[in-house]
Design a protein that fits this description.
Elements (H helix, E strand, L loop, with lengths): L6 E6 L5 E5 L5 E5 L3 H8 L6 E6 L3 H9 L15 E4 L3 H20 L13 H24 E10 L6 H8 L4 E6 L6 H4 L4 H11 L4 E4 L2 H15 L8 E4 L6 H7 L3 H14 L4 E8 L6 H14 L7 E8 L6 H21 L7 E4 L4 H10 L2 E4 L8 H9 L5 E5 L5 H4 L4 E3 L4 H13 L2 H15 L4 H13 L1
Parallel strand pairs: 1-4, 1-6, 4-5, 6-7, 7-8, 8-9, 10-11, 10-13, 11-12, 13-14, 14-15
Antiparallel strand pairs: 2-3
Length: about 475
């Protein structure tokens, strides 16, 4: 088992910095991930004695945990980071992750329910909620075992909303922070949840010394929910913070100029055709990303402004997400159906209006970033949306940003973006026309200002700022 009570800094998240696959010969292949948390934990250095606690997500992960005796994974497989992966019962994990986190909490915070029919909080929901509690308890117990006296613990996201309170009861000596990577629902929508569940979620996060969010809007919504559900003047002592995660400019610019990206740029240029403008979107086929309305707005652009036909191509990268949930499979199919309709109605022998890619390819995404004249980011609701921040940083000639006012990034980028109501197809079509019509010089200047704002708090500093605020 892991050495107990030795870590001075701990991170807890559903997904960890490494995942495993089992080869046919029984050997394990470790694949290290990226992202803001990985960069941040690397930035603090070895003297902080850090441990990352995460869940085993598949069979390879579970086998790695078994071979590690349930303790810390081998450092040579995790990039030198100390990682404790939890082999939570598969049914409990599925109920907590798919049943509650992704099918209830995600839907509440992104306001995605079709309320005449959903949600339905019945006996099955209560059964799954018990699994969500057990999942959070497993994390709290592991953190309590690993943390040194007075350690700093940074708990991440909606999967672990109950863990701060549970951990506080086990280890009152710890300094605990919780960070929400999603939006936070306003009180009227949050109270779709059963009253006791709404209260549990809020008091769970209020078990932390500090609750932090991506924007002031989401922080204020959380506070409003606390007052509406728990009553005014809650004596929790929890401080509220805001840390607007930014793009990692150095990494993106270096990675975007490697050979594999150049190769994909050449392939995309061949698909686009000579001299055409590009509207680029890169998303998961997540319901909140609003891909279908983006496609409909592009269709409206071609209808209202026929002068753009054969002169512009929409690069739409829609990478499958959560395909184990039927509503996501149906949404992915609708993205493909609308794309095919646009291409059949407007396409010509030498011009495909929408080039849709559904297989995830990071190098191809970066190639599209570099080629973008217009970035389309129109989510229904989004905690931040790093694509909106990354594209102006990487675009070779500078890009215009068409941005939903419901993205967290709007707070920082709205002044230099062309802002849209994500439900308004006609308004988004007009915004696309405006973006395509911007003079090159103005587009480049806007893009430079967007890039500066987008990189104000890069991932490593974002993490260190949270840690510093908690330690203070």
């Amino acid at each position: 088992m892991a050495s107990a009570h030795t870590a001075d800094v701990l991170v807890a998240s559903n997904r960890g910095p490494v995942s495993y696959e089992v080869h046919e010969d029984g050997s394990l292949l470790a694949k290290r991930g990226g992202g803001g948390l990985v960069s941040g934990l690397s930035a603090i250095g070895p003297n902080h004695n850090a441990v990352w606690v995460c869940a085993a997500l598949g069979g390879g992960d579970r086998e790695a945990v078994r071979r590690a005796g349930g303790g810390l994974l081998p450092a040579e497989e995790t990039g030198g980071q100390r990682v404790r992966m939890l082999d939570i019962d598969a049914t409990v994990f599925s109920d907590a992750y798919n049943g509650i986190a992704n099918s209830v909490l995600w839907f509440v915070h992104h306001m995605l329910y079709q309320t005449p029919l959903e949600p339905v909080f019945d006996a099955e929901f209560r059964r799954q909620w018990a699994s969500y509690e057990a999942y959070n308890r497993a994390f709290a117990e592991a953190l309590a075992e690993e943390a040194a006296d007075g350690a700093a613990v940074l708990v991440q996201d909606y999967h672990l909303a109950l863990a701060p309170r549970m951990l506080r009861r086990l280890r009152p000596d710890l300094r605990i922070g919780h960070f929400s990577h999603t939006p936070w629902a306003p009180p009227d929508y949050f109270r779709l949840l059963p009253d006791d569940i709404a209260a549990e979620l809020l008091t769970g996060i209020l078990g932390a010394d500090r609750a932090a969010f991506l924007t002031r809007r989401w922080a204020d919504a959380f506070t409003d929910c606390c007052h509406a559900v728990l009553g005014p003047g809650i004596p929790s002592g929890t401080r509220i913070g805001v840390h607007g995660l930014g793009a990692d400019a150095d990494f993106l610019r270096e990675r975007a100029h490697r050979t594999d990206v150049d190769e994909r740029m050449a392939a995309l240029r061949a698909e686009i055709g000579e001299g055409r403008r590009t509207i680029v979107r890169v998303d998961r086929t997540e319901l909140s990303k609003n891909i279908v309305r983006g496609l409909l707005a592009y269709r409206q652009l071609l209808e209202d402004h026929p002068e753009w036909r054969e002169r512009v191509v929409h690069l739409a990268f829609a990478y499958p997400s959560r395909q184990d949930l039927s509503v996501y499979r149906e949404y992915t199919a609708e993205v493909q159906r609308v794309t095919e309709t646009i291409n059949s109605v407007y396409g010509t022998e030498g011009w495909t209006p929408v080039i849709l890619h559904v297989k995830d390819d990071f190098a191809r995404s970066l190639a599209a970033y570099r080629l973008a004249d217009v970035a389309l980011v129109n989510p229904i609701r989004d905690g931040m949306n790093l694509v909106a921040k990354e594209m102006p940083v990487v675009s070779d000639e500078g890009c215009a940003l068409v941005l939903s006012r419901e993205a967290g990034a709007y707070e920082e980028l709205g002044e230099d973006a062309i802002v849209v109501n994500p439900y308004d197809i006609g308004g988004t079509a007009r915004a696309l026309h405006e973006a395509l019509s911007l003079p090159a010089g103005e587009r480049a200047e806007r893009s430079k200002r967007l890039a500066v704002a987008a990189t104000a708090l890069p991932p490593a500093q974002w993490f260190l700022d949270q840690l510093g605020a908690l330690e203070r």
